[in-house]
Amino acid sequence: MRSAAILVSSWATAALAQQVYAPADGPVVRPTKCSVNGSYATATPIYSFTPFSFTQTETMRTATSVIPGPTTTYAPPYESLSHLVPDLATTTWGNWDPNAAAATDSADPYGQAAWSAIWERANLANFTERGMYSTTLVLPPPSYFQPQDSYYFPKDFEFGVAGSASQIEGAIADEGRTPTLMEIITIGRGEGDPKDYITNENYYLYKQDIERLAAMGVKYYSFSIPWARILPFALEGSPVNKQGLDHYEDLIDFAIAKGMEPHVTLIHFDTPLQFYADPYNRTGPTVGRGDGGYSHPEFQDSFVHYGKVVMTHFADRVPVWYTFNEPLLYCENGKAVDAVIKSHARLYHFYHEEIQGAGRVSIKFNDNFGVPQDPAKAEDVEAANHFNEFQLATFANPIFLGQDYPEAFKMTIPDYVPLNETDLAYLNGTADFLGIDPYTATVVSPPSGGIAACAANLSDPLFPYCVNQYTNTTTGWNIGYRSESYVYMTPTYLRTYLNYLWNTWRHPVVITEFGFPVFHEAEAENLSDQLFDQPRSDYYVQFLSETLKAIWEDGVHVAGAFAWSFADNWEFGDYDQHFGIQTVNRTTMERRYKKSFFDLVDFVAARTQK
Ligand SMILES: *[C@@H]1O[C@H](CO)[C@@H](O)[C@H](O)[C@H]1NC(C)=O
Ligand SMILES: *[C@@H]1O[C@H](CO)[C@@H](O)[C@H](O)[C@H]1NC(C)=O
Ligand SMILES: *[C@@H]1O[C@H](CO)[C@@H](O)[C@H](O)[C@H]1NC(C)=O
Ligand SMILES: *[C@@H]1O[C@H](CO)[C@@H](O)[C@H](O)[C@H]1NC(C)=O
Ligand SMILES: *[C@@H]1O[C@H](CO)[C@@H](O)[C@H](O)[C@H]1NC(C)=O
Ligand SMILES: *[C@@H]1O[C@H](CO)[C@@H](O)[C@H](O)[C@H]1NC(C)=O
Ligand SMILES: *[C@@H]1O[C@H](CO)[C@@H](O)[C@H](O)[C@H]1NC(C)=O
Ligand SMILES: *[C@@H]1O[C@H](CO)[C@@H](O)[C@H](O)[C@H]1NC(C)=O
Ligand SMILES: *[C@@H]1O[C@H](CO)[C@@H](O)[C@H](O)[C@H]1NC(C)=O
Predict the structure, then answer these.
(1) Which domains are seen in the chain, by residue range?
(2) How many angstroms separate the Cα of 605 from the Cα of each of 52, 62, 108, 560?
(3) pTM confidence score
(4) Neighbouring C-beta atoms of residue 104, cutoff 10 Å
(5) String of DSSP letters for 123-147
(6) C-alpha separations of 369 from 5, 383, 438, 484 in Å
(7) How confident is the model at residue 286 (pLDDT cuts 50, 70, 90)?
(8) CA 128 to centroid of ligand 2, rounded, Å
(9) Signal sequence: where (predicted)?
């Protein structure tokens, strides 16, 4: 296999380089080139007396002055593009109230009664909503500790924050929105059990959220738009929800007015409920862990239509588009993978060829980088390659290289849809950069019965990845610090990973999510203890330091990094995994900055080329 050969050789390069990154026999040499009148390594300190007085002042920082912009446009406005999505009807449906009198317009396929029927089918337990809240801006003191390195982020490096609709918006049944996968996983489909449908009420508090980010100097804001807010009936030919369009119109304009670039993800696990309607049964082995409905016969065309509606409306102001978030996790079978890469490619071609957008289109991948348990053992290296290729090359080979699916995928998911030369030529080069959410690494070795036997056996507990995964190395040490989620959170191997991605798929890499849920933070009794989140600060500073080394020492083009997440949020079942750089009071909705937010923006601001 040509693609496999490329992966193996790039792995060999990375594995070799890795030994240079971290000397095994003592203190790590500091990369610093800072010096005062020669080197601190040889200078003698000059001791002296001065009159003592208490000089401390309580640090009060004011919000960074916000410069509106950018005024750049990336595509013509909707008025000039509307012919690309002909005959869009718009309407409004308002909020769903389970106690309201039944609507009487049952003859209208898109009327109030039809809309309410979708909510009744979702059958949400204990449905409740709350109102609007205000927040107070409270600024903590800055951090004194910063590493003394010398590298800078290039001028065009995009540092921002990310979030996703279902984890922050709430207002799930308001202003015409219909249910999505993220609500129905609460009613017995086996993936979590949210306590309520409120999350962070960002649908109502978005202006406060954006202002609080702007005040911290954040310039890039990555968020997702739920399909079910734009097209409540999901399919092509159904009316567009005027209230939903107006909401994101206002959100985008407000972010720009506050000096931020809005980056949009079209689907972040929130497939509309329609794709779970009968008659629909999933077939074949599960690829990731969930069922995103991507293999539904109507999914591909409907998603492309939805993408066109959103792009034609907002492409003038939105420079970066992600089609799918972490598609592998909700690819239910081989047909789902086919639908993902083909609908992604269709939207890429639409954006660049029909809209003639000057921005960028990409896709966000998940993969907790698999590293061989023993890099000197060929079978461990093969297992690590298998693990990473299954998750990444399955999508990235066709999209970035115009190459077929990897063997790792084809041997595991035999119902995959073969790609012919025409498909591959159409798919080739349909992403402008590679988006990756590298939360942690995992140490990999082959299963005792071999990879092939496992890949052929749906009942094997290691299926579909078919490797052993460890959180420690053969030394017995864990690879990182215990977190509330993902077991270990670590920048360990991040630099190797960035090398792997860049050298394998040969496109700029954007770290589309990175973040750290501090172990047991949710249990901290006092808010003041949650706010002083030093382990998260350390994580961010180490992670970005490794990113700088990849840029300057390895020549890897890392084009941006987006902190996950800008506030604690609903992590698909509960609020215990605090990924946020702000707290959210679940009663009052008040947001507070954690210390790590300051340390993070200060680290980046001090190191960004002017
Ligand atoms: C560095 O050299 C300058 C000029 O000779 C001198 O004024 C300054 O005190 C020196 N700084 C240190 C830390 O030695
Ligand atoms: C609904 O509320 C009841 C009573 O508070 C509780 O026992 C039940 O677990 C809740 N159901 C769900 C799905 O949250
Ligand atoms: C879906 O699958 C279930 C269980 O396998 C079966 O009972 C049902 O008839 C199927 N529905 C359709 C529409 O095929
Ligand atoms: C994919 O496109 C690139 C850039 O145009 C080209 O160099 C490469 O040969 C193509 N790949 C295949 C497999 O045709
Ligand atoms: C390739 O496959 C597509 C379906 O994905 C089909 O429409 C097309 O006709 C095929 N082309 C060739 C040359 O076989
Ligand atoms: C598949 O895996 C299951 C669970 O480990 C095992 O019981 C079964 O024997 C395996 N089947 C084959 C054909 O190896
Ligand atoms: C790695 O961790 C596992 C689980 O805690 C443990 O069983 C194993 O012995 C550890 N490996 C080493 C080399 O210490
Ligand atoms: C929380 O704060 C209160 C009041 O300052 C204090 O009495 C209590 O011990 C604190 N709890 C913890 C776990 O530190
Ligand atoms: C949330 O706010 C309420 C009301 O002000 C307060 O009583 C509660 O202690 C706060 N919760 C946390 C975790 O700070």
Answers:
(1) 69-366+433-440+479-606 (3.20.20.80)
(2) 33, 15, 55, 14
(3) 0.89
(4) 10
(5) --TT------------PPPPPS---
(6) 19, 12, 7, 19
(7) low
(8) 12
(9) 1-17
